[in-house]
Write a structure and sequence with these properties.
The chain has 152 residues and is mainly alpha-helical. The protein is built from six helices and three strands; from the N terminus they run H-H-E-H-H-E-E-H-H. The relative contact order is 0.10.
Length: 152
């Protein structure tokens, strides 16, 4: 991968083309490390992340966020429930719906996922120059804006 910088006025197509593979590789790096250390699928990790705020989520809501059909999410959540990471219960306000909640074991696993990913990134950052680290720090607000409106 070329490590050149974009000079002059920024062409959005060129920037998008340059940014896409870098973000994809970073995502792949984090997923591979997570899978090798924790034996956790990307979908399971996403569900954990959605439940971290303590608010239960409807099965359909989780399926929509993950971009899968309801039967697929039901299988994912069933495997997570078997591991003790989540619980499922009928929604109090609509008996046709199922609420999914994070358990204490699920919270501990989520904390471990976060710690593993943070450690991996920190180890990579240690190899950068101070200028490169400062550039990444300066880019954080722009990345936040780029992700605005995207559910975590």
């Amino acid at each position: 991968m070329k490590s050149s910088t974009l000079a002059g006025p920024v062409d959005l197509g060129t920037l998008a083309e340059a940014l896409r593979p870098r973000l994809a590789r970073l995502s792949l790096l984090l997923r591979r490390e997570q899978n090798s250390v924790l034996s956790l699928s990307l979908a399971q990790s996403t569900v954990l992340g959605q439940l971290l705020d303590g608010r239960p989520r409807r099965m359909g809501e989780l399926a929509t966020m993950e971009g899968v059909r309801l039967p697929t999410m039901t299988e994912i959540v069933a495997r997570m429930e078997a591991q003790g990471w989540v619980t499922r219960e009928m929604a109090a306000d609509d008996r046709r719906c199922v609420d999914v909640r994070l358990t204490d074991a699920g919270r501990r696993l989520a904390d471990q996922v976060i710690a593993t990913r943070t450690t991996l990134i920190r180890e990579r950052l240690e190899h950068l120059s101070e200028d490169e680290k400062a550039s990444l720090a300066a880019a954080l607000p722009a990345l936040d804006r780029l992700l605005q409106g995207f559910a975590p």
